[in-house]
Write a structure and sequence with these properties.
By secondary structure, the chain is of the alpha/beta class. The chain folds into 2 domains: 2-138, Response regulator (Rossmann fold, 3-Layer(aba) Sandwich); 148-254, LytTr DNA-binding domain (OB fold (Dihydrolipoamide Acetyltransferase, E2P), Beta Barrel), CATH 2.40.50. The chain is 33% helix and 30% strand.
């Protein structure tokens, strides 16, 4: 099986490649290609892939625009870190997607679905099927992220807009919202729940304890063993460390 990976996160692409080899020992993997522009150029020249793994958000934009310039007849499995609006479209159209970080069991199920679809559809019908999927997907409304949080201040409640938030952190199973002025509020959400509520263009979960906004990041320092240490504003008393496995993803997020 000949597969193309279109993915702008090097670590994610490498991990996907390793997982695919585990599922298909004789697989032929090409890529990764990291931008819409490069993907268009490549697919105009090479089209004999059996399957394409396509990240929805690439370095220079959303990958939907690839289909506007290239006639793709190859089945596609989309990958996404946060585009929840895509999920329902894939369910309705029976074409799979993988939510990052990709799990081996999910990948295995996606490949099995691909094999079954390949048996059911001739290449021409697969092309029509894919175009119908993309038409449905583009018609879906954009994801709406939370714009403000209602927090308690004494006996009253006040709204805090997301542009006032420096970061969120967890301590002893309690999650705090910290404003740009350093004021802290306890909020009734886990960090996992907040990840789904916050715009990933602005907020990034750097470790198990912190979700940071871009304005809160004052400096980034190299740390031992290829880790990164973040200097925050407002400052904290402890070191905020990004593990080696997340540094590339963090840098890509900062460079968007």
């Amino acid at each position: 099986m000949k597969v193309l990976i279109i993915e702008d996160e090097e670590l994610a692409a490498k991990r996907l490649s390793q997982m695919l080899i585990g599922e298909e020992p004789g697989i032929e993997i090409h890529g990764p290609i990291d931008t819409v522009k490069n993907a268009i150029r490549h697919l105009k020249e090479v089209s004999d892939y059996d399957l394409i793994f396509l990240d929805i958000q690439l370095a220079d934009g959303r990958s939907f625009s690839i289909f506007e310039q290239v006639s793709i007849q190859t089945p596609v499995i989309f990958t996404t870190a946060y585009d929840e609006y895509a999920v329902k479209a894939f369910e309705l159209n029976s074409v799979d997607y993988l939510l990052k970080p990709i799990q081996q069991v999910k990948l295995k199920a996606s490949l099995e679905k691909f094999r079954k679809l390949r048996e059911m559809f001739a290449r021409d019908s697969s092309s029509q099927f894919l175009h119908e999927l993309m038409s449905t997907l583009r018609s879906q409304p954009a994801t709406i992220y939370q714009n403000r949080f209602l927090v308690y201040k004494g006996d009253s409640m006040i709204p805090v807009n997301v542009n006032e938030i420096a970061y969120f952190f967890a301590e002893d199973k309690v999650v705090f919202l910290v404003r740009n002025d350093g004021t802290r509020f306890i909020i009734p959400y886990s960090l996992e729940e907040l990840e789904n509520k916050l715009d990933p263009a602005t907020f990034f979960r750097v470790n198990r304890q912190y979700i940071l906004s871009i304005p809160s990041i004052r400096k980034v320092h190299h740390h031992f063993n290829y880790k990164l240490k973040i200097e925050l504003s407002p400052p904290v008393d402890e070191d905020v460390i990004i593990s080696k496995s997340r540094t590339n993803e963090f840098k890509a997020w900062m460079n968007r």
